[in-house]
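Key idea: predict the complex, not the pieces.
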Amino acid sequence: MIEGYTSNSRVWSRSRLNPVITVNSGQTFLWEKYKNSWYGTYNDHILKFSLEEIYSKNNKYVINFESFPRFNNWEQFVFRLDDDINHISTFFTEDIVLSQLFKKYAGLRLMRQDPYQCMISFACSSNTNIAMIRRMLVNLSRKFGSRIQMDGNNFFTFPTIKRLHNASINELCSCGTGFRAKTIKSIAEKIVGGSLSTDELRGFGYSEAKEILLSISGIGNKIADCILLFSLEKTEAFPIDIWIARSLYSYYRTLFNEQTPKLNFKSIKLTVNQYNLLSKIMREHFGKYAGYAQQYLYYHMRHQANKKW
DNA sequence: CGCCAGGCAACGG
DNA sequence: CCGTTGCCTGGC
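Result:
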């Protein structure tokens, strides 16, 4: 049990308090709120945290963390409380934009996800939106996961890789995954066949691990960077989606003009080469915690656009 | 009906 | 190298 106020981005706007922990909902998709508690799927675990009490005098909430099956201190691991956010913020003191965002959105954090669940989740993220990704993953879990009852609600574990491997393309498609079913299937085949190992990926450096992910059809630059950042300890990864591209266009154009006058950065849609170039520039600019910078920019752009999630 | 949504890959110039 | 196109699906 830790003291402080925690919040998912889905509840931050309802609070007048400065949250201790905030998480972008674009990172992880299987969290749901019932009453005062949040429930999330972490592979074969259901994680839960709830606001137990409020000490109104000093605005402190007491948060209770639970899990089933038992996953001791999951909040430490999943919310990356082992990362020293104050130390990380010192990497951005010279950056006018980021130093302000770190103050404005104090407490925004990365979430550490299960690598295999993260791979499948982002394989589903291609050319669609968060609501649809959620729907696909919920359908997959209902169909191929195991039911766990908690507090009178039904939850489902994330399907095992073996179960997905045994599923037909049609069965995967029936979960609303569409053309992404092939990618899910090929990930499952590679892992079950032993040619792809999440432990191995975690051990490799950023470039090496990324190259392996890119060899999977259906996984491109952006999805690979998300998997690397959110589940494989590559905090230097800097995923560029449409929101991040907008932020770069708004705040960092001079950076590109100075370094790469040839880069024609008029469109938010990036070619593979433009992506690689921008990503490299940003990783060099922000350093080994570029992924944190990415999260702050992302959160800010979504916040500006009044996105609920 | 067309268009879009937090991408990707195949293809032609 | 670049630009274009189609893709499952649901919401507007």
